[in-house]
Amino acid sequence: MTVILGICCSLRHPGNSEILLKEALEAAREMGATVDFLRLPDLRFEPCRGCLACVYKGSCAIKNDDLGILLEKVLKADGLIVAAPTYILGPAGIVKLVTDRALTLSPHLETLAKRNRVAATISVAGNSQWNPLGVEQLNLFSLAFGYRVIDYLEAYAPGPGEVLLDPANTARARELGQRVARALQGETEQRPAEPGQCPHCYSRSFRLNGGDGATCVVCSTTGRLTPENGGLHFVPDPPGPEGHFWTMTHRRHHLESWIIPSRDRYLAKRGQIKEMLGRYRGSSND
User: Fold this and answer.
1) Beta carbons within 8 Å of 29's beta carbon, 6+ residues apart
2) What's the pLDDT score for residue 229?
3) Of 100, 123, 104, the residue nearest 9 (C-alpha)
4) Which of 31, 117, 140, 277 is 20 to 30 A off residue 210, Cα-Cα?
5) In this predicted structure, what is the pLDDT of residue 228?
6) Residue 98: closest CA among 66, 124, 129, 121
7) Distance CA 182, CA 190 (A)
């Protein structure tokens, strides 16, 4: 039986994000999935130290927080639905804090590559002008923890519970939950990307490369931005053998060709670096 994990990233209980997430999970449960629910703010997370112990030793060096609880649930779940409110142009800070810890999946990439794992996201904000990065950062969270994103929901309601005033919000949340459940049942149902979005992660944020060239800032897909029907259409380049950045093939390649060898590169110059660091040590009067 498939397991779908719902992660709520809001401190409000019950806030708009939690309401829509629970609607999505209930719809998935009605389709036969086993659902689990986790409120991320109920757990304690330390910032990533960048020490790469998760890569070289197989586990995170930080032992006094709740990452293990989250990781256990993420590794068990086949599906993920994550919901968060928008504060300053993007989701609540805990989303970024926990996304930074996703390198702890490194020892599990081979196992995860053999499973069909899909995700959908729910971004809630007061209005659309205040939410340019909600979908992008929530989808990045899902991709970083090893899921393929197949749908997303943007809902706009500033007050607690106000999301319920528009029945379309709960209907769309239920549709999202059903889509995740169907995808895990073997149906290849995925929300089509809109013309100005990356087809792999639904991002509408691109780094301009000169001319009409552009790179998706979430999954590093390259392509061109071309005029079409009064707007811009993102035409991706043909994918390489590894796919976009968050495919398991590319993640293993990045791990083996860059992250793991970085230790030897550093150790070869550690003496020189240590000497150069001397002037920066000691107390500061600033």
Assistant:
1) 35
2) 83
3) 123
4) 140
5) 85
6) 66
7) 10
Which residue's structure tokens are 């073997």? 186
Residue 195's pLDDT is 87
Q: Tokens for 273?
A: 């670096």
Ranges in the chain, pLDDT < 50: 286
| Type of residue found at 37 | F
Q: What is the dihedral of CA 207, 229, 133, 238, to 10 degrees?
A: -50
DSSP 219-268: T--EEEEEEETTEEEEEEPPP-TT-STTSHHHHHHHIIIIIHHHHHHHHH
CA distances from 70 to 38, 64, 210 (A): 8, 13, 41
The predicted pLDDT at position 283 comes to 58
Whether the Cβ atoms of residue 178 and residue 27 lie closer than 8 Å to each other:
yes
pLDDT at 279: 87
215 in Cβ contact with 209 (< 8 Å): yes
Rounded Cα distance, 133 and 142, in Å: 14
> Does the reported pTM lie above 0.70?
yes
